[in-house]
Amino acid sequence: QAQLVESGGGLVQPGGSLRLSCAASGFSFSNNPMTWYRQGPGKERELVARISSTGLNTNYADSVKGRFTISRDNAKDTVYLQMNSLKPEDTAVYYCHAPYVSSWGQGTQVTVSS
Question: Is the dihedral of CA 83, 87, 91, 92 positive or negative?
Fold first, then answer.
């Protein structure tokens, strides 16, 4: 059974940084693209970033381009989201998602506030 467990969320001041991690198990991680989504208060869930199975190709939402970096370590079955220059509008629950196995993590809260 596919399982995704996110960690690394928290409270950070505007301009700060956080690194989210998502540990995968129960499926062939290295053969699957991975994504990060987020859902802010009163908003729909939106795609933040996507990374190919090899890690060679990445895509980002316009709102995070140049500030966020998605990466993966296939030896550790883990995908990361490095978030820099955080803004209050980045406040959301962040979810890890494996689209081809239809698996979601439980989410990790990121709050950007002074």
Answer: negative
The alpha carbon dihedral of 64, 65, 67, 69 has a sign of positive
Query: How would you write 16-79 as a 3-class SS string?
Result: CCEEEEEEEECCCHHHCCEEEEEECCCCCCEEEEEECCCCCCEEECCCCCCCEEEEEECCCCEE
Length of the chain equals 114
pLDDT digits (tens, 9 = 90+) for 8-17: 999 999 999 9
Q: What is the pLDDT of residues 64-111, one digit of tens each?
A: 999 999 999 999 999 999 999 999 999 999 999 999 998 888 999 999
Round to whole Å and give the CA distance between 84 and 19.
9
Phi-psi region of 74 (alpha: psi -120 to 50; beta: other; left: phi over 0): alpha
Query: Is residue 19 a contact partner of residue 82, using CB atoms and an 8 Å limit?
Result: yes
